[in-house]
Specification:
Helices cover 31% and strands 33% of the residues. With 297 residues, the chain is an alpha+beta fold. Strands 1-2-3-4 form a 4-stranded antiparallel β-sheet, covered by helices on one side. A 4-stranded antiparallel β-sheet has the order 7-6-5-11, with helices on one face. Strands 8-9-10-12 form a 4-stranded antiparallel β-sheet, sandwiched between helices. The two termini are 21 Å apart.
């Protein structure tokens, strides 16, 4: 990652750089575990301008119209600050800003890996290697969030509705629901299941799910009965930890050659669907970045 030498000199030993993204022609947003810098290069006089903003905030919001987007940082009693960028760069700043705020405010511990950041409408979901984080509201993130530590999560399911779906998290014996559209709910559910299984020490969610009765069969906690959502919940593809690639591994109840063939086809379709859902957003994001770079030439 190419970081200006002037900025490197101002970063402390314990402060780590999270990301560097283009937000305008000649302008980059550089995020660390404590601060965000707006770095502008003035080509005519060959000078550099830095704007610095702390990320230990009570709330961070992004307001966007067709041309401009404003990032507003609320520091509570210390007031608010903001900076602007082109609206077309909105999507690329969400992930690094959320990561930076979570690290600066101590929501995630040192060494805790943030695997995925999702922003859909007024829903922000963050998956780490230890917990599932949820924030709902106009703000991108604030101190009014919910977290579900994998230590206390028993299972993750999905329940389909009309055009929407609900992610179901069994947390401390109670079912928590998160509503979003079907495709996004499926993607989040797949990744959350994978994270839960890895945290529990299993290679995938299928292996973990088989062991749930024995894990909870020591008399300290009631055994979890087969999912109460079995009639309404689609089977979710399982994924391994290798490169975060999705691998559908449905359990097949064989009833004969025709049934085996049908289920095999369904499994392959699930595998393809899950893979497309996982990588579509990354691909679209890269395409937008390439187009933006071409426009700036």
């Amino acid at each position: 990652m190419d970081i200006p030498s002037l900025l490197l000199d101002s970063i402390g030993e314990e402060e780590k750089i999270v990301s560097r993204v283009l937000v305008a022609s000649g302008t980059h947003m550089i995020t660390t575990t404590e601060r965000v810098f707006i770095h502008r290069e003035e080509g005519i006089i060959n000078s550099e301008i830095f704007e610095e903003y702390g990320l230990n905030v009570d709330q961070i919001s992004i307001f966007s119209d067709k041309r401009k987007a404003r990032v507003v940082l609320n520091y509570g009693l210390e007031g608010m600050r903001e900076f602007s960028l082109y609206a077309k760069y909105y999507d690329r700043v969400v992930d690094p800003l959320v990561r930076g705020v979570l690290k600066a405010t101590g929501v995630v511990e040192p060494g805790e890996l943030i695997r995925h950041v999702y922003r859909y409408g007024q829903l922000t979901v963050v998956l780490t290697d230890k917990q599932f984080l949820k924030h709902i509201g106009v703000a991108l993130w604030s101190r009014d969030y919910e977290n579900f530590n994998y230590e206390d999560v028993s299972r993750v399911d999905i329940e389909k509705g009309g055009v929407s779906a609900e992610i179901l998290i069994e947390y401390k014996g109670r079912m928590q629901r998160i509503k979003t559209d079907k495709e996004r709910a499926r993607l989040i559910c797949v990744q959350a299941r994978n994270g839960l299984a890895l945290y529990k020490g299993y290679k995938d969610y299928q292996e973990y799910e088989k062991m749930i009765p024995s894990i909870l069969g020591d008399g300290t906690i009631d055994k979890i009965v087969p999912s109460v959502f079995a009639d309404s919940v689609d089977a979710i593809p399982k994924i391994t930890d290798g490169n975060q690639m999705i691998i559908a591994e449905e359990e097949l109840e064989t009833e004969g050659p025709t049934h085996i063939k049908t289920m095999t086809i369904q499994t392959k379709l699930l595998q393809l669907e899950a893979s497309i859902a996982t990588h579509r957003e990354d691909t679209e994001k890269k395409i937008r970045e390439i187009k933006d770079l071409l426009e700036d030439l």
